[in-house]
Amino acid sequence: MNAPATGAASATQSTTLHVTGMTCASCVAHVERALLKVDGVISASVNLATETATVTATPAVSPQQLGEAIEKAGYAVERGEVTLDIDGMSCAACVGRVEKVLKRVPGVLDANVNLATRRASIATLGEVPLPALVEAVKKAGFGAQPLESGSQARRADNAEAERQSLQRAVWIAVVLTLPVFVLEMGSHLIPGMHDWVMATIGHRQSGWLQALLTTVVMFGPGLRFFHKGVPALLRGAPDMNALVALGTGAAWSYSMVALLAPGVLPEGTVNIYFEAAAVIVTLILVGRLLEARARGRTSEAIQRLMRIQPRTARVLREGKSVEVTIESVVVGDIVEVRPGEKIAVDGEVVEGASFVDESMISGEPVPVEKAVGDEVVGGTLNTRGAFSFRATKVGADTVLAQIIRMVEAAQGTKLPIQALVDKVTMVFVPVVMGVALLTFLVWLIFGPEPALTFALVNAVAVLIVACPCAMGLATPTSIMVATGRAAAMGVLFRKGDALQLLREADVVALDKTGTLTLGKPVLTDLAVAEGFARDEVLAAVAAVERRSEHPIAVAIVAAAREAGATLEEAEGFEATAGHGVRANVGGRRIEVGADRWMRAIGLDVGVFADEAARLGDEGKTPLYAAIDGRLAAIIAVADPLKPTSVEAVRALHAMGLRVAMITGDNQRTAAAIARLAGIDQVVAEVLPDGKVEALKSLREQGSAAGKPDRPVRVAFVGDGINDAPALAEADVGIAIGTGTDVAIESADVVLMSGDLAGVPRAIALSRATMRNIKQNLFWAFAYNSALIPLAAGVFYPAAGLLLSPVFAAAAMSLSSIFVLGNALRLRRFQAFAPAHGETGLAEGLAAAR
Known about the structure:
849 residues, alpha+beta, 7-stranded mixed β-sheet, 31 strands, disordered C terminus
């Protein structure tokens, strides 16, 4: 537990760290000595039984320093992560403030706050009590609560309540502001309106009516700005609410003075600006409402994923079919599924067969056949046929739950490009307030008469037009929409920063087996000699090979069964290692083996010379079959390319990327596969650690080729346990979702289907996302850079241009809406859009390059 020390040590703090790797009292002494060497550490007590180190130190000593000291001594420190839901944030300044207070909590290594998801991800060293984190956020003026199961639904409910509250506030503000606007601006814009107001209402009565309606707007619907903005000002951490409160408060206060005590104002400056205050509040509320609606759409991907899982399941309990809630299903339950129903949890089919639509998980539109022994995934749709399955994963362990966690984690990540934005937004609001004050003073001293009026109006315009919201939303909204869209395409970004790094990829290195190829041997070629029928030969050869467990034999038998062949019993089975096998099938002698086996039994394989040469060029080793002493066929079994591999490589080339293959296979086979797939470079016959060295070599070769502005980025795609080191070493590791759990855990991006076309799709989405973010950031910075000087009156001497506070409010609201609207365009992202076969993947991605 971390807590400030008491009494005389009020200038100290106590930190408790979990230390692993200690085995004896000597280890305890080593750790204590290492901690006491850190400057500022007053005392250190290490407990071997609980594996904890309690350190008392000055506030200047950070948890990182303590952790590094322990690690240098040869031990490890447990690190943790806490996620909080944050309420009340409205702009980038709020994000910076929350991050700042969280990082001050003892034991916190880093805090990452996301404005779009309203979440804080906190990296901790040692035990950091949740109440301390929550209290720190509350002291900063915001709400916080731990992320729990069901919190996504709770946040959706809260967001809906916020939208409804804003909608009510907007309608009230519009109804009350409209008369104020008509009374004041109508008198200037509509001929005869001024005379009518003077004759029917009267000048002073009109002012009082505007004051009354504006006051209700300000401290009714607009009270939220003061409720959050004033405390932020008093804490010395102003945000956007503070800017609005200052601007509208100044306009309203000046107008009240002009109405109640006009004598205290200089002659010619007795004007009221109630319409400006009321319209500003109304327009900003409208902007907030539109922003809330748009923000809701950015999180639709998560909500859609959550809606995939059914609420109930039909389970066999004591021999009877009972409908239970999804939470009641446990591992081992037998779950029944009827046609048209969704599968409740992950499991293995134990009875029946069907076709299951897995598009919501993998992105693949074609239903997949399921039979006894096949795995099914919760949330997928049973199209036809009924079956039962045994639940193997439930609750948070299901594939769907893991996908939701991955998407949420990626959406909450900050990209490297966000670092500059964070630095700017931390000082943005104070700088704007300084500019507003300077504007007021310059206009008051040097401005034309009435100087006070010009000074007030322009200072208010500066406060209102500044928009830190757009800067704060520019990156996270694009990430939210992009990762959601990627999930819908079967691409999961486990780490959000992979979105940026993938865009910068120069080389894509692919594993061969299971990534480029199917990952299992299949019968690829069977050519028969004159006088023999293909089906006859295949059935006879398969009957013999059925007695063997060799992968080649298994592939031949599978091909025969797929062709519907009837396999007779083989008698007198003999196997000669390294040569071949023989047996009698249906009274005929069948012999299958290599060319040397055929020569050994006196047969010439020259008749198949051309076919054998072709197979050799393709990296396949031919086998031969003889029936009753006559050469009957040449056979090849290989691990073939996946149907989409060639098109995927073409697409990567079309995007300007170099493609390499790293494999443990022999050079001849690897070269043949590379030639068929169109791969640029082959690194063959490497062990798992050799793949890591191969990646480093590819990186160095790319650097030598010339990338002076930045390091060469290498992405690696793999699926097996042996690929895990390479996936971790690559700048971006991409795992095939049909591969091993170890590979997936080592990867930054996961392709839920085995389709390699997901790689160019992911890269194309990464490029589109970074373009979108740069557009948002350009707009946010260009908007503020252009309109703040205009609002300050910089262009007035030369061009006579000024910005009304009313138009400033409209522009500020539209700025955030533009950023959100631009980010939402990513929901329609298509890596390619084939129209009746007219446009391929490569062409589509080349166009999107």
